Amino acid sequence: MAVFACAGCEAVLTASVAQVVLPVHAHQKWGNGVLLPVLMTPGTYAVDPEPSGPPWRPWSEIGVDEAEARGVFAPVFHALSFGAPGAIVVAPGDTRGTVLIPERCGGYCCGLDGRDGPNLACARCGQPVATRIDDCSLWQAVWLDPHAVRRLSAGGSTRPTASWEALAEEREGTPPVEPSGTWSLRWEAAVGAALAHLLSASAGTRVAVPDGLVADTFGRVLDALLPPGPPAKTVALAGPGLPAPDPAPHIALVPRHPQTGEVWQLSHTADIVPLAADVWMHLAFPHEGLPVPTTGGMPDGVLRDDPLPLHPRWLFRPDSGVFLHTLARLPAVRQPWLRRIFEQVKDRPYSHPF
Hints:
Strand content: 15-25%
Helix content: 10-25%
Low-confidence stretches: none
Largest sheet: 7 strands, mixed
Structural class: alpha/beta
């Protein structure tokens, strides 16, 4: 457990928080005028390994070698950040001792979007220390400036790292459909990121995916982006709590540990495609829980059909922004066939199948 303090006066700026992996949807943007929920679970923090904030440099001024040294192999936007890496993100409710900087409170229409730089200052010394984000279409969060804060040990008990076996027993997954009937934004982002890795592993050949929810979320977009013909590779779920796939697939969808970011490893030679653990858990262990209590309970294995399980109102569409962000950071995007897919989605990010 840790707390973050002002690097200038050492005033404590956060509650006690435990580190987890950066959510794949951390920089996701969705809709217009839609207020998204808080990004981080209370009591947790994550670190963004990528540079963020100014200085921004136009892509036209960045050479291929310099961009690749930065870990970017294709131009997603017109400019690339060369700011400091390591921004720390926490839930707004976990901040302490900060005040808004009035002249830096720019936003689009519903709140703050951080366009003016750090908009939170240390209440004790006035030093800018963080950026509050709560505008529409953005996940609500506070991003601590890595140069303006210090990480301190919080003391007391520590939060243990869950084993893969414990995660498999808990089977805590995120449902794919919201109560409103819309697809979960977490799923759209997680599948968008995994899709980039899956396409790279496909080597440009058609792949066969399992029936059910995997086909609903991955199958349609793979059919649209890969050439027609009989499948040359197979995809299967693999990970803790599941038996080893038989026969062994060419490509395995495996979970990424929610605390450490570790990717589940296989004993055979399948290509690994990491997927956010909460989404993977629901794919691996689907369960339609009872939406309302039942007097006396229901026998194990028996599901109610009143009310009916939630179903989406439209076909699944991966998040094109997350897909492009991930694909641009894979060296495989330099291959001509995959670069064509990248450019196709970049030019028409909201066209079928996105």
